[in-house]
Design goal:
4-stranded antiparallel beta sheet, about 280 residues, single chain, 10 strands, alpha+beta
Length: about 280
């Protein structure tokens, strides 16, 4: 029995051991919100930043959908999702765990010299190092290294090997934000201003805000091909606003937030943004 062939069986086994689980669809991302929960109109689930519990029976709100309740896991809406699922996701923080996601061989080599040994699980290109204890999640804490714990999900890839160590300060300190660092967003756009000589029309707040709002709406309303929609939306925004220096970290964060609400990971957002800039020569 493998986690990819029998995701529901694996999910039930994890849930009975106290690990909150959720199905992951193609692309290894959570299922999108149902119409009632689109754009968090329902108010969100418990423990989310938005107020009020969501009463939707579906698999909505990404990591916040993770549960240990077997009755929920085998309910009709969830069973429909499991039939389409490609693997099992879980909420590490909900199980009192932290996953240090090492994305490549270089990151693994760094961890072996910088972090205490703990339980490890092989991934496609690197390893998951799992520690006992929860903390704030943060992506791209260093090249090829993400931290997944509270308010995040990780892919279940098996029990791993080695004894699980307590969460060390060496990992906690990685999540401390530097002063000028914006979570889940790429570096500030610093492209040359237009050469027209006059005041840039994009600096008119209404013009720029309307463009960002339309981009958010386009991402939010995507019902399929979310990856493609996000990339094309980023490309459209940058093609209009990317060469005059008008975009700020706050604008980029709004786009990333909309994309992540549709199930995109921070890394996917960063990659899509970088690819769009490369295509436009920014």
């Amino acid at each position: 029995m493998t986690t990819t062939t029998y995701p529901l069986h694996t999910a039930l086994s994890l849930a009975t051991s106290g690990v909150p689980v959720l199905p992951l669809r193609r692309g290894k991302v959570p299922f999108g919100n149902c119409p009632s929960c689109a754009d968090n109109a329902c108010g969100g689930r418990p423990n989310m930043k938005t107020a009020g519990p969501c009463r939707c029976p579906g698999v909505c709100h990404a990591w916040a959908a993770a549960t240990t309740e077997t009755a929920v896991i085998v309910s009709p809406p969830w069973l429909a999702a499991w039939r389409q699922a490609v693997c099992v996701g879980y909420h590490p923080g909900g199980a009192g765990l932290t996953v240090v996601d090492l994305d490549d061989a270089a990151a693994v080599a760094w961890a072996r010299t910088a972090l205490p040994a703990t339980r490890t699980v092989p991934t496609t290109r690197g390893e998951h190092w799992i520690y006992r204890g929860a903390m704030t999640s943060r992506n791209a804490v260093r090249p090829g290294v993400d931290i997944k714990s509270t308010m995040a999900y990780a892919r279940y890839l098996g029990p791993g090997t080695g004894a699980m160590a307590n969460l060390p300060d060496a990992v906690r300190i990685l999540a401390v934000k530097r002063p000028s660092t914006l979570r889940s967003a790429p570096p500030a756009v610093t492209v040359p201003a237009g050469s027209g000589g006059g005041e840039c029309r994009h600096r008119t707040p209404a013009y720029l805000d309307r463009g960002i709002a339309m981009a958010e709406e386009r991402i939010t309303e995507a019902r399929s091909a979310v990856h493609t929609t996000v990339y094309r939306t980023f490309l459209a925004v940058l093609s209009v606003h990317g060469r005059c220096g008008c975009l700020t970290d706050a604008h980029v964060a709004r786009l990333f937030t909309a994309a992540q609400a549709k199930g995109e990971s921070p890394r996917h957002c960063t990659d899509a943004w970088a690819n769009a800039r490369t295509r436009l020569g920014l």
